[in-house]
Amino acid sequence: MKNIFLIIFGSIVFLNAIDMPSVSMPSMMQSYMKSGSKIMKNGVNMMSNMKDTIIQKSNQMMNMGKKLERKMFKLYKDGKLFSFNLRKDNIYVMDITPNGRYLVVGTDDSIVKIWDLWNGQIIKEIKVKKYLVDFIKITPDGKSFITTSDNNNINLWDLKTGKLLKTFHNGSNEGLVNIIILTNKNQLISGDDSSLVKVWSMKTGKLLKTFHFKTGMVTALAVTDNGNIIAGNDDSTIKMWNIKTGKLIGYFKGSNGLIRNLFISSNKGKYLISIDDTSIRIWNIKKRKNIKTLFFPYRVSSVRLTPDGKNLIISDNGFKILQIDTGKMTKIIESKNNYVDTMNLTPDNKYILTFNDDKSINIWSIKERKKLAKYISFINNEWVSFKSDAHYTSSNNADKYIYLKINNKKVPLYILRKKLKEKAIKLK
Question: Measured between alpha carbons, how far is 32 from 414 in angstroms, rounded to an integer?
Fold first, then answer.
């Protein structure tokens, strides 16, 4: 206000010093004072509006701070000391959106849950009737996702609204095992437990073509750069068909046991990678010849191809990375007694997401070679996420069911909120 007044007063003095036309001083001053009064009035109004805006923004920030304060508390990290008074979700399948933000998981209670990985919260739950969710695949545009259930149908869902968009009617006796989406042809390929590989129109939901194994369940699918379908089954057979003509091109022979995964490398689509019970095999697709095999003394729990198609991430008492071109394998993260049921990678190749045998979702940094967060969901729609910086965030009531052991006493997290806000509590 002082500055505004000085500007007005200085303007009046300056104008008086200028060689003005001959007018009466009282009328001139009256005119100047009227103008000055108007400017001051506008200045006061402006300052008042600014003050109101600042107060409003300040209140918003305070409210936001309170909201965050209710959601985020510092916690001494030691997962062994947590106990839960609710049954955790058992997650069978999961997939991550192309932007790396949302994780879609399917539970054994016929519920699909969507986690926002950036803030560690569940943002949506979708009930899939009464059927177990067997498979989840997010469409390449990240706007929808596909599920299969033990009612043997394929369902397409809107990721944002949770609305069912389309159903592909697969047949009453053909349980689905695997799905691939072909974006360039707007087609979907499915494999089922009746030895069938099917090609569907994503637009109409109609069945376009069917390929047959003689026996066995179709357990893995891949599509080459030129559009040929490769499928593996539970009796170690791997076949390749021409998707246009339906003609069988040939076999990849030499695998041992159930084919768990098939991947196509990024090296001009030159290599096929197959994972069976005890080995990882690299094949020349054109010659259908096995060029390298890595054997394991036990079943590898989970393997994923990095989004750039150059490496495999293998879950094995932690994680190993296999360079496909060289066959070199390197240990990147050590983590004993942590069996991985399922695994995914973020599109930027920076993070590994796992569902472990303790029924938790874990996020691992490949660069930092450590766990960053643990997410847990419960059957009553509650959830909690623990972070490596010793903080946690949870749904409104979840920390009433989560206990810490302090001096041999179980104490609910919500009881410790006031203390937890200030500093981490070391648990004895």
Answer: 66
